TrEMBL record:
SUPFAM superfamilies: NTF2-like. This is Ketosteroid isomerase-like protein. Residues 31-114 form the SnoaL-like domain. The keyword Isomerase applies. The lineage of its organism: Bacteria, Bacillati, Actinomycetota, Actinomycetes, Streptosporangiales.
Amino acid sequence: MKTDPKTFIADFFTSLSDDLVNTDEDAAVIIDRYHTPDIMQLADGNPIDRDKLIAHTRPVRKNRPESRMEVHEAYTDGDRLAARYTLHVRQRGKDLAIDVHFFGRFTPDGRMREAHLLTRSV
C-alpha cells in the first residue's frame, strides 16, 4: 500500500459506504469494486462471503445511515493491514459507536481479499 494505513482504511470504508448510500448503482458492482470475488470476512465469528455482503447492502441502503470513522492506529505489512478504529453511526435518530479491531488482506489494486473483525458497542 502506497497510502498511509490510517488514510487507506478510512478512505476504503468511507468510499464503499458513500457508493452504497448515495448512488443507485447495482450493489453487486459496488461490492466487486471493493472486494475480490472470493472475499471472506469473519465478523465476530460470523462468516460473510460475497453473497452475504451483497445482501447486507439492502438494509444499509434502506436505512441510509450517516457514519464516520475515527482511526486510532493502523499498520501494514505487505498485503496485510491491522487497524483499530471507532465507527460512529447515526441512524434513525440514534447515535451508535462501535469499536473495531480489524485484520485484513488487500490486493495491490486496493480490493479487500480477507478480513477478521472484532467489534463491541461503546
